[in-house]
Every structure is written in C-alpha cells, then in structure tokens.
Design goal:
This protein is of the alpha/beta class. The protein has a single domain, classed as Rossmann fold (3-Layer(aba) Sandwich). The chain contains 6 helices and 8 strands, in the order βββαβαβαααβαββ. The chain is globular and about 75 Å long. Residues 30-52 are annotated as: Disordered. This is Probable phosphoglycerate mutase. Pfam families: His_Phos_1. It comes from Saccharopolyspora shandongensis.
Length: 232
C-alpha cells in the first residue's frame, strides 16, 4: 500500500480496561413544596415522593435504558430515587442497591421544601450561595469540603465494585452537579440544573473521571430545554 492510500480515521471513545461506566440519572420530578407543609424527613433531609410527572419521567428513563447492558442499579436513601429506578429495575430484573453517599446535598435549615421557596424568591442567601459557590452559606447546610469527600468516596466505592462494567445510579441534581464539577475541574456549581429524568455519564479509571455526557434529555421529549430544573 502506498503512503497516499494510508488513512487515519477519527476513532470513537473506548473505555480503558478496568474502568467503570457510570450513568447518573436524576430522579423524576418530585411533589411540589407548599408553604406551611414540610416534606417528611429522612436523616434530616426532605423526602418527597414523585409527582405524577415524575412517574412519567421514570417510565421514559426505563424505555430509554431498557436495551442497555447494565450490571447494577443504585439508588439513594431518599424514595424519589427508588421510585424513579423502579420501572427500569423491573424491566431488567435487577434489584436496586442503596448508596447512601450519593444522597442529595444537605440543605440545613432549608430542608423540607423551604429551599425551593427561597430559590423562587431569589432570596439574598441564594444569591450569595451562587456568588460564593458554596452550599453552607445556607444556615446549617453541608460544606463543599464535606460534600466533596463523601461524593468522592461513594464514586470510588462503586468503581471498585464494578470494574469493566456499566452501572446506573439514580441520584439527585446537586450530586450530579458535584460529580460533574469534580470530573471537569470546574466551579463547584457549574453543572447545576440537570433536568429531572436526565442522564449524565462519567467513566472512572483510577483517579481519573472522564466526562462523557451531561443532562441528556432526548428521551423526555422536551426538546432543547432552556430553563434549569429546580434543585431538591
């Protein structure tokens, strides 16, 4: 073959040997917060169930991932993740496992639904939170340092348990944002706003987390969403 016939095509991504492919699915839309009526708490964190729209999100996720080769499904300690995972788990015959380290960011005194109200009001503390890129400007909320530590430990546990496998992790908007920011080396809150029911993806190989997708919402029939989804 002459040199003029040699071709070097663009190659597709190939996961490194021993790595773990992690799909991060944000839970479906949860029930609305209402003034004077706090969500039930689990270990001090709001635990709303899915709204009717959220149950449809769960079905849409199940249809999207039904033909994927998944080795495990994980949920957190909060029921909205288990409810979102249920249709896919039933289709695949996989019993969801619980990873407590990927539960939502703890919002301190603003748990139980109050955080949503403060966001809607553009409370000065919310403005400060975004300006300083820290959750703990909210009274009693989780620090960036503590959040980073528990998320890293949780992802490392999952990777150690699933080399050369793909797993689906049903989790929360704040956690997806944190994982993506850690992988990308970005500002801590640069990736907030993943849609309910969206799919993000990292590949974990050793200490390296490779970003593969963020906020994939093609299965939700929402087009190119222009508005960030409310957290929690």
């Amino acid at each position: 073959m002459s040199m003029s016939e040699v071709e070097y095509r663009q190659s597709r991504f190939s996961a490194p040997a021993g790595s773990t492919d992690v799909l991060l699915i944000r839970h479906g839309e949860s029930e609305p917060a209402r003034p004077g009526r706090s969500f039930p708490l689990v270990d001090g964190q709001g635990d709303p169930e899915l709204a009717p729209a959220g149950r449809e999100h769960a079905e849409q996720v199940a249809r999207r991932l039904a033909d994927e080769d998944l080795d495990a499904i994980y949920v957190t300690t909060l029921r909205r993740t288990a409810q979102t995972a249920a249709p896919l788990a039933a289709r695949l015959g996989l019993a969801p496992r619980v990873e407590p380290g990927l539960r939502e960011v703890h919002l301190g005194d603003w748990e139980g639904g109050l955080f949503r109200q403060k966001v809607a009001e553009n409370d000065p503390v919310i403005q400060k939170m975004h300006a300083e890129q820290r959750w703990d400007v909210i009274p009693g909320a989780e620090s960036t340092e503590d959040l980073t530590t528990r998320v890293r430990e949780a992802v490392e546990r999952l990777a150690a348990a699933h080399p050369d496998q793909r797993i689906a992790v049903f989790t929360h908007g704040g956690i997806i944002g944190q994982v993506m920011a850690m992988a990308a080396g970005s500002r801590p809150m640069a990736f907030l706003g993943a849609n309910n029911g969206s799919i993000s993806q990292i590949v974990v190989t050793g200490d390296l987390w490779i970003v593969r997708r963020f906020n994939d919402s093609a299965h939700l029939d929402e087009g190119l969403s222009k508005a960030a989804s409310a957290l929690s």
